[in-house]
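# step 3/5: fold
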Amino acid sequence: MLDIGDPLIQIKITSSVCSAFAIGTTIHRVVIRWGRLQADDGWALFSMFTLLIQIAGVFMHVPDPTRLSHLSRVASYYLMATSFYTIIWSARLSILFSIIRVDSSDNRKRLLKLVAVLFSVVCIVLIAQLYWVCEPQPKWKDLPSPQCTLNKQIAICQLVSDVIADSILLVVPLKLLQGVQDRQLRLRLMVIFSTCIVTTVVSLVHAVYILNHGGKKVIISALVEDCFSLIICNIPVVFTSVIRLRERHRNKTTYKSTLLKFCSRLQGRHTTVSQGDEATFVASCSMNPSLAKPCSASWNAAENLLELKTRRTELGVISTPTNSSMNV
């Protein structure tokens, strides 16, 4: 029987539930973009793999700590603490490279790549800070479930870096989306990219727990922040696939219905045709052999045009005033 009041059980439940959603969205992302994977997908995958390492560190905490060696208990903490940073910052790099991929400006791309280098440096510095703060404090390593007492220095650095990084990821897409002519699409994309604010809110909670020496709450909030970061970096691609399917169905219905009415009028008939029924179309053409060939050609042309339109507007392809395209 699980003791829900046990902090170690709470940590394991939090890790299992949140990680399941984060890993699920990442796998969905990879399936959607299979065959055209790019740097942003690679960073999302890297974030997922480090999340798996974090899960291993979480489940190294067993009810009876004596079953693990002293070194293993310390290593499990460092696995969780180090992976905390790599998950968050690789998820941010995934979002950043998604923006780089869809941006048509070479100058902005170069600038954003410099920002990506800066993100990587910040991640390395924060990991190094963890060690130079924890290593001089050897007493925490002797606890049954070792956990380093993080100080104000770490909390402030985490919070400041999180706010600045998330602000960059929020502001850059707004500049990019100014060229989108479709107002509804522009608003929808702004909402999708602005979800990075959620990470800032969770990081604020995490920093508060660090400042108040929240104990196990620090670990739980860190696990939630990690999983939210990975989920949010996958949102643009996952939401794109959902909207793409809806747009594809709507466009297909519109194209075929219009084409059927057109062929009916070619025959001098104004029959009402059901939603894009190809069988009805073929039967309609067969009633007048002289129109069968042009109608069939029109049908095939519509199918090809629909496929092209779907690929270019799958919420990832957005026409700008300069006729450039953006593929999310």
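# step 4/5: annotate
Residues 269-278, 286-293, 313-327 have pLDDT under 50 and may be disordered.
# step 5/5: archive (pending)
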